Amino acid sequence: MSEPLGIDAYLERVRQGLERIGPQQAFEAAADGALLVDIRYQALRERDGLIPGALVVERNELEWRLDPQGSHRLPQAVGHDLRIVVICNEGYASSLAALSLHQLGLRRATDLVGGFQAWKSAGLPVTR
Fold first, then answer.
1. Fold of 7-121
2. Confidence of residue 3 (pLDDT cuts 50, 70, 90)
């Protein structure tokens, strides 16, 4: 049996398979039809605000809501070619979530480097 990998090494491995994007790229992707998906938990959304137009799907429901073949999918889950940008608070959990979406066949899923905090720091729109 191999040695345990550890979360830092695992996260690095996961990110090698993603084309992660920055805040401005995410903003432009949304303008081009990408689905921004905010997976932060409610307390963070209440504290820091929301990205206008982002779909809020808490992390524990993500795969069920975005799987185009799933019985609990959201109307936005229209197909496997959908461009999805997953956003967490600081860009860690979103990488793991994007990998999970890849495993469901959503190969255009990625995440936002730095998460919501990077979006906010870039001066991009946030609503309370």
1. Oxidized Rhodanese; domain 1 (3.40.250)
2. confident
Amino acid in position 22: G
- Domain segments of the chain as ranges: 7-121
- Any idea what DSSP says for residue 114? T
CA 103, distance to chain mean position in Å, is 14
Averaged pLDDT for residues 27-34: 97
What pLDDT shows up at residue 4?
A: 87
Residue located via tokens 């979103």:
94
Does the predicted model carry a pTM greater than 0.90? yes
Cβ atoms of residues 11 and 94 within 8 Å? no
Give Cβ neighbours of residue 84 (< 8 Å, ≥ 6 apart).
34, 35, 37, 66, 98, 101, 106, 108, 109, 110
Please, is 9 exposed, middle or buried when counting C-beta atoms within 10 Å of its C-beta (0-12, 13-18, 19+)? exposed
Q: Kindly tell me if the per-residue pLDDT of 48 is higher than 80.
A: yes
Distances (CA, A) of 81 to 40, 78, 91, 106: 24, 8, 23, 6
